[in-house]
Protein backbone atom coordinates (compact mmCIF):
# COMPACT_ATOMS: atom_id res chain seq x y z
CA UNK A 1 0.00 0.00 0.00
CA UNK A 2 2.83 2.33 0.90
CA UNK A 3 4.53 1.60 -2.43
CA UNK A 4 1.30 2.27 -4.31
CA UNK A 5 0.86 5.67 -2.62
CA UNK A 6 4.48 6.70 -3.16
CA UNK A 7 4.20 5.71 -6.82
CA UNK A 8 0.90 7.54 -7.31
CA UNK A 9 2.13 10.85 -5.92
CA UNK A 10 4.96 10.89 -8.46
CA UNK A 11 2.44 11.02 -11.31
CA UNK A 12 1.70 14.61 -12.41
CA UNK A 13 -1.93 13.85 -13.26
CA UNK A 14 -2.56 12.32 -9.83
CA UNK A 15 -0.99 15.31 -8.08
CA UNK A 16 -3.08 17.70 -10.17
CA UNK A 17 -6.28 15.78 -9.44
CA UNK A 18 -5.54 15.85 -5.71
CA UNK A 19 -4.85 19.60 -5.85
CA UNK A 20 -8.13 20.19 -7.68
CA UNK A 21 -10.07 18.12 -5.12
CA UNK A 22 -8.40 19.95 -2.23
CA UNK A 23 -9.18 23.36 -3.77
CA UNK A 24 -12.83 22.42 -4.28
CA UNK A 25 -13.02 21.25 -0.64
CA UNK A 26 -11.44 24.51 0.55
CA UNK A 27 -13.93 26.61 -1.42
CA UNK A 28 -16.82 24.58 0.01
CA UNK A 29 -15.49 24.89 3.56
CA UNK A 30 -14.77 28.62 3.23
CA UNK A 31 -18.34 29.32 2.17
CA UNK A 32 -19.93 27.19 4.88
CA UNK A 33 -17.71 28.47 7.71
CA UNK A 34 -17.38 32.07 6.55
CA UNK A 35 -18.98 33.38 9.75
CA UNK A 36 -16.64 31.41 11.99
CA UNK A 37 -13.32 32.14 10.24
CA UNK A 38 -13.97 35.70 9.04
CA UNK A 39 -11.37 37.17 6.71
CA UNK A 40 -9.68 33.79 6.43
CA UNK A 41 -12.69 32.71 4.37
CA UNK A 42 -11.79 35.18 1.60
CA UNK A 43 -8.12 34.17 1.72
CA UNK A 44 -8.97 30.48 1.56
CA UNK A 45 -11.33 31.09 -1.37
CA UNK A 46 -8.70 33.06 -3.31
CA UNK A 47 -6.06 30.39 -2.74
CA UNK A 48 -8.50 27.65 -3.70
CA UNK A 49 -9.47 29.43 -6.94
CA UNK A 50 -5.81 29.86 -7.85
CA UNK A 51 -5.08 26.18 -7.20
CA UNK A 52 -8.22 25.10 -9.07
CA UNK A 53 -7.33 27.27 -12.09
CA UNK A 54 -3.73 26.09 -12.26
CA UNK A 55 -4.84 22.50 -11.76
CA UNK A 56 -7.42 22.71 -14.51
CA UNK A 57 -4.92 24.15 -16.97
CA UNK A 58 -2.38 21.59 -15.83
CA UNK A 59 -4.79 18.76 -16.59
CA UNK A 60 -5.61 20.31 -19.96
CA UNK A 61 -1.92 20.51 -20.83
CA UNK A 62 -1.20 16.93 -19.73
CA UNK A 63 -4.15 15.37 -21.53
CA UNK A 64 -4.21 17.46 -24.71
CA UNK A 65 -1.41 19.94 -25.25
CA UNK A 66 1.44 17.73 -24.05
CA UNK A 67 0.46 14.96 -26.45
CA UNK A 68 0.17 17.44 -29.30
CA UNK A 69 3.55 18.96 -28.42
CA UNK A 70 5.21 15.54 -28.20
CA UNK A 71 3.67 14.52 -31.51
CA UNK A 72 4.87 17.69 -33.22
CA UNK A 73 8.36 17.30 -31.74
CA UNK A 74 8.63 13.67 -32.84
CA UNK A 75 7.38 14.55 -36.32
CA UNK A 76 9.93 17.36 -36.68
CA UNK A 77 12.74 15.19 -35.32
CA UNK A 78 11.94 12.31 -37.65
CA UNK A 79 11.82 14.71 -40.60
CA UNK A 80 15.20 16.20 -39.66
CA UNK A 81 16.70 12.74 -39.19
CA UNK A 82 15.55 11.65 -42.64
CA UNK A 83 16.95 14.82 -44.17
CA UNK A 84 20.31 14.30 -42.42
CA UNK A 85 20.40 10.67 -43.54
CA UNK A 86 20.05 11.85 -47.12
CA UNK A 87 22.74 14.49 -46.63
CA UNK A 88 20.74 17.71 -46.31
CA UNK A 89 22.59 19.73 -43.66
CA UNK A 90 21.05 23.15 -44.35
CA UNK A 91 17.83 24.47 -45.84
CA UNK A 92 17.03 28.11 -46.53
CA UNK A 93 13.68 29.62 -47.40
CA UNK A 94 15.27 32.20 -49.69
CA UNK A 95 18.03 31.34 -52.11
CA UNK A 96 19.76 34.70 -51.61
CA UNK A 97 20.46 33.79 -47.97
CA UNK A 98 22.88 31.04 -49.03
CA UNK A 99 26.40 32.20 -48.15
CA UNK A 100 29.13 30.67 -50.33
CA UNK A 101 31.90 33.18 -49.65
CA UNK A 102 33.97 30.93 -47.40
CA UNK A 103 33.68 28.00 -49.81
CA UNK A 104 34.73 30.24 -52.72
CA UNK A 105 37.86 31.21 -50.81
CA UNK A 106 38.90 27.87 -49.35
CA UNK A 107 37.55 25.09 -51.54
CA UNK A 108 40.11 23.23 -53.65
CA UNK A 109 37.54 22.54 -56.36
CA UNK A 110 34.80 25.03 -57.22
CA UNK A 111 32.14 24.61 -59.91
CA UNK A 112 29.29 27.07 -60.33
CA UNK A 113 26.22 26.43 -62.45
CA UNK A 114 23.99 29.30 -63.61
CA UNK A 115 21.34 29.67 -66.27
CA UNK A 116 22.55 32.83 -67.96
CA UNK A 117 23.18 35.96 -65.86
CA UNK A 118 26.16 36.84 -63.67
CA UNK A 119 24.10 37.92 -60.64
CA UNK A 120 25.58 35.26 -58.33
CA UNK A 121 29.10 36.07 -59.51
CA UNK A 122 28.48 39.78 -59.05
CA UNK A 123 27.30 39.30 -55.46
CA UNK A 124 30.46 37.28 -54.70
CA UNK A 125 32.86 39.38 -56.74
CA UNK A 126 35.52 39.98 -54.09
CA UNK A 127 35.84 36.40 -52.83
CA UNK A 128 36.12 35.28 -56.47
CA UNK A 129 38.86 37.84 -57.15
CA UNK A 130 40.75 36.71 -54.02
CA UNK A 131 40.43 33.10 -55.14
CA UNK A 132 41.75 33.88 -58.61
CA UNK A 133 44.63 35.90 -57.16
CA UNK A 134 45.66 32.87 -55.11
CA UNK A 135 45.79 30.73 -58.25
CA UNK A 136 42.80 28.54 -57.39
CA UNK A 137 40.65 27.72 -60.40
CA UNK A 138 36.96 28.35 -60.78
CA UNK A 139 34.72 26.71 -63.38
CA UNK A 140 31.34 28.08 -64.43
CA UNK A 141 28.81 26.30 -66.61
CA UNK A 142 25.87 28.13 -68.15
CA UNK A 143 23.08 27.42 -70.61
CA UNK A 144 23.58 28.26 -74.26
CA UNK A 145 21.46 31.00 -75.77
CA UNK A 146 19.64 28.42 -77.88
CA UNK A 147 18.62 26.50 -74.76
CA UNK A 148 16.84 29.49 -73.24
CA UNK A 149 13.23 28.83 -74.25
CA UNK A 150 11.93 31.48 -74.36
CA UNK A 151 15.15 33.43 -74.62
CA UNK A 152 15.75 35.25 -71.34
CA UNK A 153 15.94 39.02 -71.31
CA UNK A 154 16.19 41.69 -68.65
CA UNK A 155 19.69 40.95 -67.33
CA UNK A 156 22.58 43.34 -67.91
CA UNK A 157 25.63 41.14 -67.48
CA UNK A 158 26.61 37.69 -68.67
CA UNK A 159 29.11 35.27 -67.16
CA UNK A 160 31.61 36.21 -69.88
CA UNK A 161 31.17 39.91 -69.12
CA UNK A 162 31.93 39.29 -65.45
CA UNK A 163 35.26 37.53 -66.05
CA UNK A 164 36.32 39.93 -68.83
CA UNK A 165 35.91 42.82 -66.39
CA UNK A 166 37.99 41.04 -63.76
CA UNK A 167 40.78 40.20 -66.22
CA UNK A 168 40.93 43.84 -67.31
CA UNK A 169 41.84 44.99 -63.80
CA UNK A 170 43.49 41.84 -62.40
CA UNK A 171 46.63 40.77 -64.25
CA UNK A 172 47.48 37.10 -64.18
CA UNK A 173 43.91 35.87 -63.65
CA UNK A 174 43.21 34.75 -67.21
CA UNK A 175 44.28 31.18 -66.47
CA UNK A 176 42.26 30.90 -63.24
CA UNK A 177 38.81 30.36 -64.71
CA UNK A 178 36.91 28.36 -67.31
CA UNK A 179 33.46 28.96 -68.76
CA UNK A 180 31.46 26.12 -70.25
CA UNK A 181 28.29 26.29 -72.29
CA UNK A 182 25.74 23.48 -72.19
CA UNK A 183 22.82 22.66 -74.42
CA UNK A 184 21.00 21.15 -71.44
CA UNK A 185 18.32 23.11 -69.61
CA UNK A 186 19.40 23.89 -66.03
CA UNK A 187 16.59 23.07 -63.59
CA UNK A 188 18.57 24.60 -60.72
CA UNK A 189 21.65 26.71 -60.07
CA UNK A 190 24.39 25.18 -57.98
CA UNK A 191 27.71 25.75 -56.23
CA UNK A 192 29.78 22.59 -55.91
CA UNK A 193 32.64 22.83 -53.43
CA UNK A 194 34.72 20.52 -51.25
CA UNK A 195 32.08 20.41 -48.49
CA UNK A 196 29.17 19.57 -50.78
CA UNK A 197 26.70 21.28 -53.10
CA UNK A 198 24.41 24.26 -52.70
CA UNK A 199 21.31 23.47 -54.74
CA UNK A 200 19.43 26.65 -55.66
CA UNK A 201 15.91 26.03 -56.86
CA UNK A 202 13.64 27.86 -59.30
CA UNK A 203 9.91 28.46 -59.11
CA UNK A 204 7.87 27.20 -62.05
CA UNK A 205 5.90 30.45 -62.30
CA UNK A 206 7.27 34.01 -62.28
CA UNK A 207 6.85 35.64 -58.86
CA UNK A 208 8.44 38.27 -56.69
CA UNK A 209 9.61 36.00 -53.87
CA UNK A 210 12.88 34.09 -53.91
CA UNK A 211 12.88 30.26 -54.24
CA UNK A 212 14.50 28.07 -51.56
CA UNK A 213 17.95 26.51 -51.47
CA UNK A 214 19.46 23.57 -49.62
CA UNK A 215 22.94 22.17 -49.01
CA UNK A 216 23.88 18.50 -49.44
CA UNK A 217 27.07 17.28 -47.79
CA UNK A 218 29.86 15.39 -49.54
CA UNK A 219 29.64 11.57 -49.56
CA UNK A 220 25.89 11.55 -48.91
CA UNK A 221 23.25 9.89 -51.08
CA UNK A 222 21.86 13.17 -52.38
CA UNK A 223 25.36 14.48 -53.04
CA UNK A 224 26.09 11.50 -55.27
CA UNK A 225 22.85 12.11 -57.19
CA UNK A 226 23.53 15.79 -57.79
CA UNK A 227 27.24 15.23 -58.46
CA UNK A 228 26.38 12.67 -61.14
CA UNK A 229 23.90 15.12 -62.67
CA UNK A 230 26.58 17.82 -62.80
CA UNK A 231 29.03 15.42 -64.43
CA UNK A 232 26.44 14.59 -67.09
CA UNK A 233 25.89 18.30 -67.59
CA UNK A 234 29.57 18.73 -68.45
CA UNK A 235 29.39 15.83 -70.88
CA UNK A 236 26.90 17.93 -72.90
CA UNK A 237 28.96 21.12 -72.79
CA UNK A 238 31.85 22.86 -74.52
CA UNK A 239 34.40 25.32 -73.19
CA UNK A 240 33.89 28.85 -74.51
CA UNK A 241 36.38 30.87 -72.42
CA UNK A 242 39.21 31.48 -72.03
Describe the structure in your own words.
There is one protein chain. The protein has an 8-stranded mixed sheet, with helices on both faces. It is built from 9 helices and 8 strands. By secondary structure, it is α+β, with helices and mostly antiparallel strands. Helix 2 (about 10-30) runs antiparallel to helix 4.
Features:
2 domains, disordered N terminus, alpha+beta, Endonuclease, Chain A, elongated, single chain
Shape designation: elongated
Give me the CATH fold name of the largest domain.
Endonuclease, Chain A
- Count of strand segments: 8
Order of helices and strands: HHHHEHEHHEHEEEEHE
- Would you tell me the structural class of the helices and strands? alpha+beta
CATH superfamily of the largest domain: Endonuclease Chain A
Summarize the model shown.
The protein is of the alpha+beta class. It contains 9 helices and 8 strands. The chain has 2 domains: 85 residues; 152 residues, Endonuclease Chain A (Endonuclease, Chain A), CATH 3.30.870.10.
Layout of helices and strands:
Blueprint (H helix, E strand, L loop, with lengths): L1 H7 L3 H21 L1 H4 L1 H48 L1 E5 L8 H6 L4 E4 L4 H5 L1 H9 L4 E6 L15 H11 L7 E6 L6 E4 L3 E5 L12 E5 L3 H15 L1 E5 L1
Parallel strand pairs: 2-3, 3-4
Antiparallel strand pairs: 1-7, 2-5, 4-8, 5-6, 6-7
Helix pairs in contact: 2-4
Amino acid sequence: MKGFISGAITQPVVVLLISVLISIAMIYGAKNWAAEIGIWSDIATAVSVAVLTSGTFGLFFNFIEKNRLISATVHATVGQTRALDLGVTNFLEHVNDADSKEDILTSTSLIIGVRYSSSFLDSNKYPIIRRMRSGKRISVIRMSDETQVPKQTGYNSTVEDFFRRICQIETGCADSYSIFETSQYLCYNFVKCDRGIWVKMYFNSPQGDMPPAFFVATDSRLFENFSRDIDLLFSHSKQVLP
